[in-house]
Amino acid sequence: MTNLFKKRLGAHLTELLKYLRFVFNDYFVLALVFMIGGLGYYYSNALKQLKTGLWWAPLVIIAVYLMGLQCGRLATMLQDPDYVFLLPREAEMIGYLRRAFNYSALLACLIQLLIWVVLMPFVQVTAGASVPELFGLLATILFLKVTWLNADFARKYHLNHQWLGNRLLFRLVVPVIVLALGVYVNVYVGAGLAAVVMIIGLVSRRSWASRSLDWQTAIADENSRMHSIYQFFNLFTDVPSLNGAIKRRRYFDGLLRLIRLLPKNTYLYLYAHGIVRDSEMSGLFMRLTVIGTLFLIFIKGEALPIILCLLFIYLIGFQMIPFYFHYEDNAFVHIYPITTDHQLQNFQRVLLTMMSIVALIFAIVVIIVNITNPVTVIGVVVCEAVEIGYFVYMYVPRRIRKSEFSR
C-alpha cells in the first residue's frame, strides 16, 4: 500500500503541475503581482486607521479563521475502480489512508500558517495581542484543522458513533465555539480546548480503524474534491475531466426569445442556448464575474482597477473560445447549409454580448469606488472598449483559425 500511495501521489502532483502551468502564465503572474501589491498597500493603509477595542474586530477574526479552516480537504486519491480491485485488500487500506491524512494535514497546516501570517497585523492592532497570544491562535487553528481532517478520515468508515465523522460538528460548530473562547475569553483556553478535541479524535481512531471501509462515501468525497480543483483550473484552461450538466434555466427564456429565428442566426441560437444551459460555461462566467467584482469593490487606485478589469474580461473571453467547436461533433450542423462565416459572426455576437455585460458591471463598480479619480473612471471605459473590440474582432478569428488548423 505504501508503493500504491506513492504512485498515486506522484500521478496526482504531475496532473496538478500540468494545469498549474496554464494557471500561472506570464500574464496572470504579472496581474497577480500587481493585485497582491495593491491589496497589501490597501491593507497597510487600512490598519493605520484601526484601533484596539473595536466591537466588530473579534467577529472578523473568527470569520476569517473559520473560512480558512474550510480550505484543504482529505486527499485520498481514490478512484472509482478501487471499490472492486482494492476490496480484497481492505484491511490494509488504513495504512494507505494514514499516509493520505499526513500528506493532507501538512498541506492544510501550511495554508493555515499563511492565513495566520496575513491576519496577524490585524489581530495585533485590533486586539492588542502579544507574541505568545498570536502563537496561541496559530496553535488553535492548527489543532482545529487536524481535528477537521480526522473527522473527514472517520467519515470514510462504517462507524458505531456517527458523530465522529459529522461534518457540521467539526467543520462549523466546534471551530466556532473554540475560536469564540479563544478570542473573547482567553487564547490559551481556546488552544487548550482545541488540543483536547484533537487528541480525543486521534485516540478514537483506534475504535474505527479496524471497521469496514465505506467505499462509496470515500470515493464520492474524493470525486467531489477533484471536481472542485478542476473547476478552479477550468477558470484558466479547458479541463477534459470536467463534465457539465445541462439545465433549462427558464428565467433566461425571455432573453433567448429575442433571437430572430432566421437561417443566418442558426449558430447564434445554438451558442446562446448552449452557453446559458451548460452548467460549466455559465458557472465559469458567473464565478469569474463575481470574483472580479469582489476584487474591484475593495481596490482603489489609478492603474490597478483598470488592470484587474482587463484581466478578468480577458479570462472570461478566453475561456469561451473553445465553445466555438462545441457542436462540431453534431452531424446535423454539417448537413444544414450554413457557412463558417455565419458561424464565426454568430459566435462573435454572443461573445461581444457576454464581455460587454461584464465590462459594464466592472465599469460601474470601478466608477463607484473611484468616483473622485477621473483618470481611472475614463481609463476603465476606454480600455475596456479597446480590449473587447480587439479581442472579439481580431484575436478570436486568428485563434479559431489556428485551432481549426491544429484539429
Describe the structure.
- Pfam families: EcsB.
- InterPro entries: EcsB_ABC (IPR010288).
- By secondary structure, the chain is mostly helical.
- The protein has helices spanning 2-23, 26-48, 57-69, 82-85, 93-127, 131-154, 167-185, 187-203, 205-208, 215-233, 253-256, 266-277, 279-297, 304-320, 331-335, 340-369, 374-406.
Globular, elongated, flat, extended or rod-shaped: what is the shape?
flat
What is the percentage of strand-forming residues?
A: under 5%
- Rg is 25 Å
The structural domain count equals 2
Low-confidence stretches: none
Order of helices and strands: HHHHHHHHHHHHHHHHH
Major beta-sheet overview: none
Mean pLDDT: 86
User: What structural category arises from helix and sheet content?
Assistant: mainly alpha
Keywords: Membrane, Transmembrane, Transmembrane helix
Protein name: Bacterial ABC transporter protein EcsB
GO cellular component, one term: membrane
Transmembrane segments: 20-43, 55-79, 100-122, 134-151, 187-204, 305-325, 350-371, 377-396
How would the blueprint of this fold be written?
Elements: H1 2-23, H2 26-48, H3 57-69, H4 82-85, H5 93-127, H6 131-154, H7 167-185, H8 187-203, H9 205-208, H10 215-233, H11 253-256, H12 266-277, H13 279-297, H14 304-320, H15 331-335, H16 340-369, H17 374-406
